[in-house]
Amino acid sequence: MKASETTLRNLLEGGKQFQIPLFQRTYRWKKENWETLWEDLMYLYNDQVQGAYFLGPIVTQAIPGTADGISPFIVIDGQQRLTTLTIILAALRNYLKKTDKNMAQEVEELYLINKFKKNDDIYKILPTQGDRDVYKSIIQSKQTKDIQKEGQIYEAYKFFNGKFKKPDPEDDQILNYTKFKTILLERLCFVNITTDDSDNPYLIFESLNNKGEELTQADLVRNYIFMKLPPEKREEVYQSEWRPLQESFKTYVGDKNYTDELNNAFWFYLRKDGDAVNEKEVYKNLKKRFDNSQMDIKDELQELVKFANYYKRLKFEEEEPEEKLRVCFKRLMRLDFKTCHIFLLNIYHEYDQKRLSLEKFEEILCYLESYFVRRFFCGVSTNILGKVFNTLYSEVKQKNPDDSIDGLRQVLKQYEKNKVWPDDDRFRNGIINENIYTKSLNDRTKLILERLEAFLTREKVETDKLTIEHVMPQTLKKEWKTFKECQ
How many structural domains are present in the chain? Predict the structure, then answer.
């Protein structure tokens, strides 16, 4: 590992390319980061700070290039700063085009692109795939209207473009672009740390990020998997497996929250075989599973993605192509009965593998719904359900390896105490005595009452002609009647 002091000019000049690898997150800097950097640049510009300004370490690893190609480096630490500074250079270049075309050309050809290269080799900085298209449009654009207007990279460009237009809202100062270019390229100082080929870049990255505490569990899983893959397979596997999964989750929860939902999907996957796994140790447990697996890393990833997609269909019923299952999944979500998804991942796998019919899948879902609604009316605590569903599938298979419905029925009937599936007598008494009607009807209560109505008519419960209206207090009868008439 070699370390040396350098400037942005020295870092970018020559036929180099700094590649942001798949194990890095996408660009994350926000307005407060951009504001701080701009203020620091203005201190230098206004001579309030003398000498060089230290911006921290840039950690890279040289990787083999070709005789007629560029000198590529993987960026292990420093992608936010490098990306931001080249975005500033791109905004500066666009302003220089109006006043000094020669200088604009110099900025572009020396510090933004490798002029005589082709395809992706032309870019000095090559962001990770999620940011690449927007970044390319900024570097290539002849006018602002040509830039892809999406994501944080575009927001960064828009911010600095606005700063060149008016550097200080309280001042009519006009920038001297030549002076600003010199400050940017020569007075910003880094320590450039270049690692040897034998060093593991992921381990270095993990160490620099304090063992991953700044990353989500899903980020760490992605990082680990793609560093385990051979370099020549990473792009293909990313495009075929990881990116479709990532983008589909973003559809439902957005860019900011999709890693949390992915983490839940991975957590449920780890628990489906009966293992008790802490939600904060998803990465640790998946890493252990992958390390001990006899399967190829790509096959392990495909298995993980497959079950994450099952989870997605259970959680976001619009993803489910079968209408009958969509209805059932939606009811489970309205009941806020997500814990059963641990068990249902295995059941969905049976269904997906044609080992379980649609009709039998529906029947299993009805059993689970009955289990939940009966317990609800009998006032049984839900705290135990995580443990119940962690081990339920293995218990079912022990009872009847060939028939999941029969196995499920046997297991639920044998449960006692806080795991109990209340019998008809206890259920009937719970309907009469349990007070769930203290609040105005909300979505969950409406569904509970709808399902109770179905149970009273379909299940073999001796109710003595008991009806919803019979057990509901007078204060809610009118509201319930209005609700039913509006359905």
Answer: 2
